[in-house]
Amino acid sequence: MNQLTVWSGLTTIGCNIMTLHDQESRLIMDFGMANDQLEGRNYHSKIAGLIAEDKLPGIPYLYNEEDLEDSNLAANTSTPFSQEAVFISHLHLDHMQGLKYLPDRYQVYMTEASYQLYQNLIAIGDEFPIAAQVIPVPYNQSLSIGKYMVKFIPTDHDIPGSSAIYISHDHTHVLYSGDFRFTGFTSDRMENLIKEKLPIDILLCEGTAFSFDEEVGEGDNGDRLQSEHELLVKTQALFSQRDQAIVINPYPRNLDRLMALNEMSLRVKRPIAWDKNFAYLLHEFTQDPVYSWDPAADSYSQVVEFNQRNHYAYQIAYQDIDQLDHIGPGLYLHMNGEPLGDFDPRYQTFLDQIASHGYDLVNMGVSGHANKEDLVYFASEMQADITIPWHSFHPKRLASALEQLGLTTFVPEIGAVYDIEAPLD
Ligand SMILES: [Zn+2]
Ligand SMILES: [Zn+2]
Asked: Is the pLDDT of residue 91 over 70?
């Protein structure tokens, strides 16, 4: 017996959670949340409220009984599984924000690079230690949980440690793609995964790009960039002009981009001065010199002044936006930092603030997700018996694109239990 259940993330971008179990063991794949703010009444506990508001999945035997309110779930807290483990594909919030609500009996496995990033995010206060035990695993090393064999396979995404997760059980094999793209600095990882020609009964494939009528990365003024390399080249050209102040706003967890930008800025002799958190992360991940505009960062970086706008570029996160007063006017390169787009209620205020400080906004974002063509290419090359599209507003659009190529797809019901040793229906 090997049974699969999808608990969330079928028609949302992220927060995709599934379990696989047999009589003895259960695996939980990813444990993300969109947000963990309660909207409703006084619940029995925070966990009970988050489950009631569909922010945490109502998975049986997962939570401690005293945290639960729903009588059905509460009656089911004595687990029949002798072995259980949680696997995290990468450290974006939509894949791991729920970890802090896991009971302490769980082991949480993630790649070594994810683990290193996690420890450093805790050090800067961007994450907090959790009750469950977090265990780093090297890429491609098989781990057994009961009859299950699990390994993390490296992928190209916009965060260190990103992975697809391959799960074998007797003669059935499941690949969970995680989030991926072919346009980062490590796109060869995707080609290597394809070349492995792993036997796959079920592929759970992200479908972010099929959420939108336009391609991911388009939108706004259609001026998003196609790849990390293009971002680097265009940023270097702007840095080299030196006639105006430049401020950048990237996302702190995209360390490959931060390291590439830092290295480029040193090479063109216009170093980026980072805030203390970014400077800390860079100091931990690279041997290159790191500059900061924050005197609090002086133990791990070289602190510089704001008044040398032609000699330095500056990284300013949204919470520090008033610092623009000390630098500008100039160019504001928006590189997937917060607030990311107009779905964020802070976005219009942000645009007004940029303009009032005298900055021209340049959208220099690159998507962390494969475009539609690359998604279809990946899923068709993987040659799974069945592909389950998820992590998309419109999983059926990816399904029909694949069906047209002769692939078999399946869109499961949330919470339904499927025996994957038999045909799915
Ligand atoms: Zn995601
Ligand atoms: Zn992601």
From this structure: yes
Burial class (CB within 10 angstroms; exposed 0-12, middle 13-18, buried 19+) of 95: buried
CA of 114 to the centre of ligand 1 (A): 15
- Give the CATH number, domain containing residue 8: 3.60.15.10
Does any domain span residue 414?
Answer: yes
CATH code of residue 271: 3.40.50.10710
Which ligand places an atom closest to the C-alpha of 162? 2
E strands within 138-284? 143-145, 148-154, 163-169, 172-176, 202-206, 245-250, 272-274
Last residue of a domain, one of 345, 363, 381: 363
Considering every ligand atom, which ligand is closest to the CA of 14?
1
From the CA of 368, how far away is ligand 2's center (Å)?
Answer: 7
Ligand nearest to the CA of 114: 2
Helix (H) or strand (E) holding 85: strand 83-87
How many helices (H) and strands (E) in the chain?
11, 20
pLDDT digits 0-9 by tens, 175-234: 999 999 999 999 999 999 999 999 999 999 999 999 988 764 444 444 579 999 999 999
Measured CA to CA, the distance from residue 141 to residue 311 in angstroms comes to 46
In one-letter notation, the amino acid at residue 128 is F
Q: Which residues surround ligand 1, an ion (CB under 5 A)?
A: 14, 94, 179
Task: Categorize the per-residue pLDDT at 72 as very low, low, confident or very high, splitting at 50, 70 and 90.
Answer: low
